[in-house]
Amino acid sequence: MGFGWPIVALFVMFIAASMAGIDYSVALFADPLLASVFGYASSNTTVLIAFTVILLSHGILNHIGIGIVSKLNDFSAWYHIAISASIIYLKLAKRFPISRT
Fold first, then answer.
1. Cα three-residue angle 13-14-19, rounded to 5 degrees
2. Are 54 and 27 in contact (CB under 8 A)?
3. Hey, is 95 helix, strand or coil?
4. Does the N terminus or the C terminus of the chain have fewer Cβ atoms within 10 A?
């Protein structure tokens, strides 16, 4: 018997766990931020609510809006290319002064 299916099953579990970990980290960051903006007290319950909302929106977006996910991926790629090019340009601009006297 091959090891393909057990390895794929472990891979799927690891992907799900990593996504849940990322979403929980976002909830830990977003809840105190939203609490300071909207004036409520941040607690474990509000973090769990934020985590649930993030997971649900993540799942719904991936399930229904694959076109939206594709557009967000394209935007992210162009955004990172533009920021990287800007940083490289600004780093190189210091080495070449406008007035060469």
1. 100
2. yes
3. coil
4. C
Which residue shows structure tokens 């920021």? Answer: 83
Is there a single domain that holds both residue 52 and residue 70?
no
CA distance 54 to 19: 11
Query: pLDDT by residue (tens digit) across 54-85?
Result: 999 988 888 887 888 888 889 999 999 999 99
Query: Whole domain around residue 88: which residue ranges?
Result: 65-100
Which tokens go with 62? Answer: 């991936």
Which candidate, 17, 9, 93, 96, places its Cα nearest to that of 55? 17
Instruction: Looking at the structure, tell me whether residues 73 and 45 fall in a common domain.
Output: no
Whether residue 70 is found in the same domain as residue 47: no
pTM of the model: 0.63
CB 30 within 8 A of CB 54: yes
Residues 29 and 49 in one domain: yes
Looking at the structure, tell me whether residues 2 and 45 fall in a common domain. Answer: yes
